[in-house]
Description:
- By secondary structure, this protein is an alpha/beta fold.
- The chain contains eleven helices and 13 strands.
- A hairpin with a 5-residue loop joins β11 (217-221) and β12 (227-230).
- α1 packs across α9 (251-265) and α10 (269-283) packs across α11 (296-304).
- It is globular and about 50 Å long.
Amino acid sequence: MPDIVAIGEPLVEFNQARSRDPSAYLQGFGGDTSNMAIAAARLGAHVGYVTRVGNDRFGRMFLELWSSEGVDASGVTVDADAPTGVYFVAHGPQGHEFSYLRAGSAASRMTPETLPLDVLRAAHLVHASGITQAISSGACDAVFTAFDAARASGAVVTYDPNIRVKLWPLARARAIVMATVALCTWCLPSEDDVRVLFDNLTPDAVIDALHRAGAQGVVLKQGAAGCIVSNGAKREHVPAHKVQSVDATGAGDCFDGAFATRIIAGDDPFAAARYATAAAALATTGYGAVAPLPRAADVDRLLAR
């Protein structure tokens, strides 16, 4: 059974090509928790994924991808009655613009009853995100059930709020995210997340609020500024690494996968965050969510620099 299990929604990506033809799109793969699982696998972890995909070409492409990346797909169900989700990324003066075709997707049909609880209970770490909770009430309930199973088995629970306000009403997003924070061993929000959750709080105040909500540990991801790590007793800022960044798509997911990998390997959270910050920096040096995810040797070279 996998040591790390992520639960979530995979999406086939069509990323606008950097060419003179704006109608040209390059096909890739996305979905925050799928990215996280692949990142962890590339860094040497034994990882599994729990989701549903359609009985379609895109679903088969994902099964082939996970197989090639060493991600255990025994927790993946093929749904004959729903499609695999798709999203498009366009690039303009204001940055990325995302368009999603995910309503009624196979992943949105996850429920507590469809979960492979044996896989979840055997894991040492279970990871999910707020996006999974936003795509349907059944998927939201499935995340709570997965986390309950993990906690009952003594596993580490990591959670990235990854709030997308277009997916659900703001009040519901805040309520669900904060209820999930209470179940976390490690909460891994971005600055964008905390701007939605809290009004004008300083980073330290945000971390204090998340601890009060029940999170045992917090890593506040700050992009080019690095991150702040708090285990409740100690707090440390971890600076970012300077790289030739071209596309930040999937960098936060890479951070989550790298952090989980090192926590399971026995690192303390501050060392795990230093490793994850380096991995996330490397993930910005190529285009797309999956292609630039680094290998362990790449991260080691950057840390040694």
